[in-house]
Amino acid sequence: VDISNWKTQLRKGFLEYGLLHAVRARRRAYGLEIIEATRSAGLPLTEGTLYPLISRLNKEGLLKAEWETESMSGHPRKYYLLTPVGHRVLKAMDAEWNNLLKTIHDLRGDTR
Amino acid sequence: MTSENTPPLDRRRLEGWLRQLENALQDVSVVDRSDIVMELHTHIRESYERGDRSLEEILSGLGEPAHVANRYRVDRGMQPVDIPKPQSRLVGFFKWVTIGLLGWLTITTIFVIVMLIFAAQFLPLVQVDEKAGRVKILGGMIDVKE
Asked: Of A18, B25, B103, B108, which alpha carbon lies 20 to 30 A from B68's?
């Protein structure tokens, strides 16, 4: 049974949620760092998806960016961190996530 | 940090890719555009310096510049730009060759007809053989079956 279409649908909102957590957990993070963090956590996220997505979250005001030149390699890195709005949104997302978990537990008939 | 065994980066390939991306983002504001290009420049270089992927692998992970630009566009609520498929170049080539050939054929045919009419008016060199159903032009140099 192929559930790849269902997985794609499910991932759409989940990516944003996971990405915001990856940033918050590090206080601030740059693109490559986020890709590596999500990958090792089992969420395959390609660079072609991450950069436009993070750029949109920045535009929407959930994240803010600061440029900083890395002293070792000399490359200017764009670090992202959550804005106050981003923190509020993530809190609301957490609440929704917990609701969904509770719902699926109930529907599955899990004993709690 | 570049590890010891990382071959030198193909700068021309990298710069070419970034230039294509920049061109594909012409309708995005200058500030955003240079931000995007600089961010991806750093990403590619730092990924390369990790030493576990070739430049081509990194670039194909990002996708074609036009596709990357479209993802930024869509995420900004802008219309994506139509990207011509790679084979359409060849199709386009044959399309123009066909159009060119047909045009050339039409012009040549018209030219020949006009010349024949012209020749028939001024030179009594066109002979019509009703029985055989043949038209002989210029003393039989051109023989047309009716």
From this structure: A18
